[in-house]
Design a protein that fits this description.
Elements: H1 17-33, E1 36-40, H2 52-66, E2 70-76, E3 78-79, E4 82-83, E5 91-94, E6 97-102, H3 114-117, H4 128-135, E7 141-145, H5 150-162, E8 166-169, H6 176-179, H7 183-199, E9 203-206, H8 209-217, E10 224-226, H9 242-246, E11 255-260, H10 269-279, E12 286-291, H11 299-309, E13 315-319, H12 323-332, E14 335-338, H13 347-354, E15 359-361, H14 369-372, E16 376-378, H15 383-394, H16 397-414, H17 417-437
Parallel strand pairs: 1-2, 1-7, 2-6, 7-8, 8-9, 9-10, 11-12, 11-14, 12-13, 14-15, 15-16
Antiparallel strand pairs: 3-4, 5-6
Helix pairs in contact: 2-17, 4-5, 10-15, 13-16
Length: 438
């Protein structure tokens, strides 16, 4: 006689259906804890000429890696008007992230037609598709960054074919103001190609609520979630280096207004120079420092205008700056100004706030928290409004210092990469859980 209820013919605890489900759930949770993630992006560090997305995508990849996930990046060797000096069409480790730089084919310039030549291009990389087909089977989830480029197109197509969940990130590109720039080419591409990719995505990521609206304006109703950019604040909280700033003609008693972005019409640098012209005589110790790659060959015309109409040496063009030079300029600036027509979620603004530098931005920057936190001003991107704001802000240096402190507190409280990576991981987990239960 067998005692109790557990004779040898009874199923063991491990064989019970509920136990099997528990074990499967445990295995699934373990898989989620170590997700295999594929990023597709047009460029990757050190391609800093391509702007803020290079900073934000690489930071997110590294933070996800630190959280225990496996991250692979498929990108090109593009760096705006040049190619990176990197190995191509093979994996390489960049700050513990596996990165594949694929050799891009350059589009031939069309003489006399800047509409077709002043662009970073489609970035066709012929070796990428074959490598994707080898790598995708090992991936849990695919995340594309930025539209209108081959890496997003081919990665989305191959992910759909392989049945992999797709997350789509526009990073501000569908802002109505940006779509008016070269509008017919963009609208045609959206209608023929990009909208099909967007609609195939499991979830759309938006940096701001305005980006959600821009998705909807395209007639796309996929689920969308807002996850902002962030910054490693500690990298921008060191004292400035007087020797570095002296290279740009900055003296100890100067009032420094800093513009740091790509020199492109949509960024508003021409309006900022015009507005500075209106206040330069009132503030002879003020200097406008313009830093960033000259994507649209604007420096010559801006420099000639500044030399004619603004006090000698009050406008300085620093070119592309990175690393310690960039951090020192941000720390030294009394005010950061970006009167852009359209931004996703500017990394330069976040870095300025982290540096305790107050900001003067436009509504197109989509950053209302700046004024809500008392960290700066938001004014229309026209020369008159900017000149008035510059005059008022530069006349109150104590107020600038208080704004800078408020901005630093805002960043430390709300815009850390640890927080953003956790939000992103949770998004991936919810998508994979939904796919599992379907």
């Amino acid at each position: 006689m067998r005692g109790g209820g557990g004779g040898e013919d009874a199923p063991s605890h491990d064989d019970h259906p509920a136990a099997r489900r528990d074990a499967q759930d445990t295995n699934f949770e373990s898989d989620l804890a170590k997700m295999r993630i594929l990023f597709a992006v047009p460029g990757y560090k050190p391609a800093y000429k391509l702007g803020g997305p290079i900073e934000s995508v690489s930071a997110l990849a590294e933070e996800l890696k630190r959280a225990g996930h496996s991250v692979t990046v498929f990108t090109t060797n593009a760096n705006l008007d040049e190619d990176l000096d990197v190995e191509t069409d093979c994996p390489t480790m960049v700050d513990e992230v596996e990165v594949w730089y694929f050799k891009r084919m350059r589009a031939k310039a069309v003489p006399g037609i800047p509409y077709l030549t002043k662009t970073s291009g489609f970035l066709y990389a012929p070796a990428m598709r074959k490598a994707l087909r080898r790598v995708l089977p090992q991936m849990d989830i695919v995340h594309t960054h930025l539209p209108f480029v081959y890496p997003t197109y081919v990665t989305a197509m191959e992910a759909n074919s392989a049945g992999k969940p797709l997350v789509y990130h526009q990073r501000g590109v569908f802002d109505p103001a940006r779509l008016t720039f070269r509008s017919w080419k963009k609208r045609m591409y959206i209608g023929l190609i990009e909208k099909r990719i967007i609609r195939s995505a499991d979830t759309l990521v938006a940096l701001t609520g305005a980006e959600v609206d821009s998705y909807r304006s395209l007639g796309v109703n996929n689920p969308a979630v807002v996850i902002p950019n962030a910054v490693y604040a500690e990298r921008f909280q060191s004292p400035y280096d007087e020797a570095i700033n002296a290279r740009f003609g900055i003296s100890k008693g100067d009032l420094v207004v800093l513009f740091m972005s790509r020199l492109h019409p949509i960024k508003g640098i021409d309006k900022l120079v015009d507005s500075f012209r209106g206040i330069a005589d009132e503030f002879p110790n003020a200097k406008l420092v313009v830093a960033g790659p000259d994507e649209w060959n604007m420096v010559d015309s801006l420099s000639r205008s500044a030399q004619r109409e603004i006090g000698r040496g009050q406008v300085r063009f620093a070119g592309m700056v990175t690393g310690a030079t960039k951090a020192s300029l941000l720390a030294r600036a009394d005010l950061f100004a970006l009167p852009s027509d359209a931004e996703g979620f500017s990394m330069a603004i976040l870095e300025s706030l982290a540096s305790a530098t107050p900001v003067l931005i436009s509504p197109g920057c989509h950053f209302p928290a700046v004024e809500e936190a008392g960290a700066g001003r938001i004014v229309d991107a026209d020369s008159g409004a900017l000149a008035t704001a510059l005059r008022e802000m530069l006349s109150a240096p104590e107020r600038l210092v208080a704004m800078g402190r408020a901005g630093q507190q805002l960043v430390n409280r709300s815009f850390t990469w640890e927080r953003v990576a956790a939000q992103t991981s949770s998004l991936y987990e919810s998508i994979l859980a939904k796919a599992r239960s379907a």
